[in-house]
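Attaching the record inline, Q. Sequence:
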Amino acid sequence: MEQRNERMLIETTRHRIAGTITLASEGYRSRVSDLLNAPDRDFLSLTDVTIEVLDHDGPGTRHAFMAVSRRHIIFAIPAGDAPSTL
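Structure, as predicted:
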């Protein structure tokens, strides 16, 4: 199965997270909404991650990998649609 990477901006109640997700290039699971609504997944896997604590001054931290619990996500958008703040 061919795959593609997409930069995402995710926000939880306490954090703003920017990272890369892997999606199928077409068909099932080729959309972000497919990944967020998949009943067999409790976590979203991200690579090349930057995490900022909301309401906290200072730089964010960088990580090669992170798994985010879907139930903690308030919103998720493609980073190309968001103003760059990271």
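The helical segments are 32-36. The chain is about 5% helix and 50% strand.

More tomorrow.
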